Amino acid sequence: MRISDLLMSSDYLNNLSKVKENVTNLQNLIATGTKINSPSDSPVGTANLLGWNNQLSQTQTYSGNIDSGLSFLQNTTDTMDSIQNNITTVLTKLTQVQNVANTTNLNSYADQVDQILNSLVNQANTNVDGKYIFGGTDFSAAPFSLASDGSSVQVAPNDISGTQSIRTSQSTTQKINMTGTEIFGTIVKLDGTIDSGTAVGGSVTKNTNVYDSSGNQYTLNTTFTKTAANTYDMTYDVVDGGGTSIFSSPPAAKSVVFDSTSGNIKTVNGQPASDIHIKDTTKKIDFSLNFLGVAEKSSATTLAYSANQKNDIFNTLIQIRDTLKSGKTPTADQVQAVSDFNSRLLDNITKAGNITNQLTDSQDLLSNRQTQLNTMISNEQGVDLAKAITDLQNQNNTLQLTYKIASSTVTDSLLKYL
Hints:
The chain is α+β, with helices and mostly antiparallel strands.
């Protein structure tokens, strides 16, 4: 088969074009550092990159949430540690006043307790980045305030039981705050079951003792009256020893709906269930009623109350201070109340530590995932610069050689032609 000059010229030009295209592509790779500069470069690679970059962005967002949560928890834990140091000091002072030799210095001890009380209120109002760490979800005002005459500590009207949560994955959230109610408040819990066989119109009532800031006893009455299947009107009242309500008018009934499958509370007045804050500044009564542990089951009704404390730590310290000022040593109940608070505080410090550990573990998983995604993105899009530079040199050499061959061939052809 005879190879014509035209065929040779065509092959030469095609090869020259390919070499020049290779040189241009390699120059672009080296300049941009990426193998894919437009979707047409690799449709499959582009789809992979879009998916991986989206996942990377999400993991970075979750990682940022965790960083913020860990910082908030660290401030919370540090503050609780400081509070615990103050409570330890109080317990030490209470031990010292039991010594007869110190009974002449009770006023001095009263002043020391008063100083610690002021310090505790300030610590309970710790603000970090515009957030009161024990303020729940409302940061508009300090959660606690000491009366000007030092006679009581009041909880601000804002809700200090709100939970702050962060998202650590597409389907996971994590609580990051210890609420003011958990740390300092009195929580009265009602747990147990209500017989689902209760007839419409039938009611179930449960009572327990609650106390004002001075330790005076009142009775909390809670009643569930069935109005329809899985639905009850829940009413409550707080009465003194004579049966007189502390409320000027009865609190409105709350419609409680139980889930027909699980039996747990589904809604209260059409909304997610939450604690009821019961407060009377005149009677100095302040506690939260938590009835979320009540369920409707096909079994006998069994309801039981429990409380995390009889009185809050602030008013307990006020009682202790005033007792010392009156020339008396604190009662065993008062000392026990401080000791109990110290135990609960240590438990809450442990809970905060457990949350910190969980977030740290989640952060490690996210960090590993980010490393994997970055590796996949780099492998798909990244350029081996050393190899690319070597290839470019080879292609440039080939291009120069091609030019030389062309020059020799063209000259030789012209001479023959002439």
